[in-house]
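This entry is retained here.
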Amino acid sequence: MKIEDMTPTEALSHFFGFDEFKGEQEAVIQAVLHGEDAFVIMPTGGGKSLCYQLPALMLPGTAIVVSPLIALMKNQVDAIRGHHEDRAIAHFLNSSLNKADAQLVREDVIAGRTKLLYVAPESLTKDENVQFLKSIQLSFVAVDEAHCISEWGHDFRPEYRRIRSIVQQIADVPIIALTATATPKVQADIQKNLGMRDAKLFKASFNRPNLYYEVRPKKDALQQIVRYARNHIGKSGIVYCLSRKKVEEIAEVLRVNGVRALAYHAGMDAGLRSRIQDQFLMQDVDVIVATIAFGMGIDKPDVRFVIHYDMPKSLESYYQETGRAGRDGGEGHCIAFYSHKDIEKLEKFLQGKPIAEQEVGFQLLQEVTAFAETAMSRRKFLLHYFGEEFDEVNGPGSDMCDNMRYPKPMRDGQEDVHMILGMILEHKQAFRMPFYTGVLCGEANREIVDYRGTESSFWKRGAEHDQHHWKAVLRQMVVLGFVRKEVESYGTLKLTAKGEQFLTAPHPVQLVEERDFSDVDSGDSMNQTRGHGGGAADPKLRKLLTDLRKDEAKRLELPPYVIFQEHSLEEMAIHYPLTHDELIRVNGVGSGKAKKYGEPFLALIKQYVEEEGIERADDLLVRSTQTRGNSKVHIIQRIDRQVDLEDLAKELSMSSEELIAELEAIVAAGTKVNLDYLLDDMLGEEGIEELFDFFRESEDAGTEAVVEEFGDVYTEEELRLARIKFLSEFAN
C-alpha cells in the first residue's frame, strides 16, 4: 500500500509498530493532514513528537521542525532513523555542522529523501537558509517547545518570537505548535505571537498519576541524595542543581559511594555532553547530575527518580523536569529539597535586570515557594497552576504526594477567608499578596505606608499570627477559587464570583496549616555532620573498639592511631558497619586499610550487634570525598613524578597548607604516597629515623604533639610531611 493511501492508524503501525494512538494524538494528526493550524499542549511523555513526525512521513514535501537544543535535535533524528531504512529520512541543520555536512543535508532535502528537517530558531533566520527553504516543497512547520516564545515561560528564547515572520517569508503552510508546560497566560502568548488564534487547540491533562511528589527540608540534602541513590542501585535517575560546581561535587560524591553517576552541564563541550547522554540512554550510567541543560526531549522512558537539589526558578521548569520520570507509566519518585535561603539567592540573581523581567521572575519564584510550602495536595496545586481542576480525593494519583500520604490536620478557616476577602475589596483589589499579609500583621513597610495600609480597617487584625500563616491562607484561597491572581499586573489579587458570593453567604471552609521551612539551612557540606548524622556513638561499643585497637596495636607493634584514628572508631560506634564495603565508607578508612586491619573490628561489631539485638538503620552512612573533585588522583600522579610541592600547589590553585591537608586526608583514607624525594633532602636519614621513633612510641602523635616536641628543630611543614610518610608506610 502506498503511504498516501494509508490511514493514520495504518501509518502508525507501518512506521512505528504501534497499534493505537495515545490520547489526542490521532485528532492532532488528522488536523495537520487536513492543513489546519494546531496548538498542542501535552505533558512530558504524552507523545507530542508523534503528532508532527507521523504526518511529516505521510505528506508530500519536507516538514520543518523548529527545536531549541542541538542535543534534542540529535536525539529525535536518531529516533526517527531507527524506524526507517533511509538515514536521509530525517536531518538537522544547525551550528554543529560544518559546510560540507550542511551541503549534504541540503542535497538530501532537494532530492526529496528528507521528510523531517530539524532547525534551531537561530538557523531559521539566516538568509541563506531562508532562500534554501523557499526553493523546496514544505508540508508544514512544527514549533517544538513552543513555551520558549513567551517571556512568562520558563525557558524564554527571543529568537522564537521571530518564527512567524520568517515562516511567512518562506511559504504559506500550516503551523503546529507543541509544548508540555503552558499556563493560560503562556498559551495566550504563544497563540498571539504565532498568529494562531483560530488554531485547533488540543490540550491533554497535565496529570501524571504515576509520579509521587515530595518536598523535603534542605537539611543534609547531599547525604540524603546519596542514600536514596544507593538504595535504588541500578535504577535510572536525574539530580538537578542550579550551579555547575554543585553538579560536579554531587556527581563525585555519588561515585565515591558506589553509584554510577556522571556530571552534565553547559560548560562541557558538545561532544562530551553527547557521549554522556548516550551513556545514560544505553544504561552504562545510572544517575546524571545536571543543570537544566540536560533532559529536554530525552526519550528515556525508565527514569525512576528525579531529585531537585535546588528548587527551580519556576513551576513550569519543575513540572517539565519531574516529567522526565516514569514516562513508561511505571514508578516515578520526584523529590525536591527546599529552603528559604535558596529562594532568596534566586531573587538576588534577578537584581540588575529590567524591571519587567524582575517582576516576572519574582512572581514565578513566589509560585515555587507556594508549591514547596503548601500542605494541600501538591497535585491539585500544580494542576491548578496550569489551569486544570483536580479532585484530590478521588482523582487519579490523588494519594501520590507527601501531603496526601501524610496529611496535616484540617481546620475551619471561614473567619480568615471572610476577613481577607473583605480586606481585598476595601483596597479596591489593587494589591498583591505581601501587601495584604503585611496589613494583617501590622508591618509598616514602604508600600503599606505609601498606600495608606496603616489606615486600613484591617490594620493588625491578624497580628496574632505571622505572615507565614496568612500567606498559607491566601494561597489556599487562590487554589480553592475564592480569589485569582491577575497575571498581567504581576499577581494582583482579584475576587472571583465564588469569592463575592462567599462574602454575602459565608460557610465553613476546610484549610490546612502549611509546613514551615524557615529554620532550614541551604548548604550541607558532607563534613558538616560527619560522625554525628546517625546519632550519638554507642558508648559500650566505642570502648570495645578502643580496647580491640589497643590489643591489635600491641600485636602488630604499632601505635593505636596508626590502625584506626579516633574519629573512625567514633563512626563505627554510630553506624555499626558489618561488611568490607560498609567499613570503607567510614571516614578515614580506605580499601587498603580495611583489608589490612578491618577483619577483627568487623567480627567484633557483628558479634556485638547480634548479642545486643541492635537494629541498624537501613541506610548506613555516606562517604565524603576526601579531596576536592579529581585532585586526589592528580596529586598522587604528580608526586609519583616527583613534582615540587610549591609547584603542585600552584597547579591546583592551593596554598602549601591546603595541599598538605589534602595529602593528610589521602593517607588517612588508606592510600600510600612516596615523599622520599622531598624528605631525604629536608630531614636526612637520621632526622627521619628520630621522628619515626617518636611516632612509634606516641599514643597519639598529632601535629600539635610533634610540633611541641620538635618545633625548634624542624618546621611545621617538615614535621607534617614526616608524619604523612610514617602513616603511609605503617598504616596503609
Observations:
- Residues 591-612 form the longest helix (22 residues).
- DSSP finds 34 helices and 17 strands in the chain.
- The chain has five domains: 3-203, 211-405, 414-508, 539-612, 631-730.
- Residues 211-405 form a domain with the Rossmann fold fold (CATH 3.40.50.300).
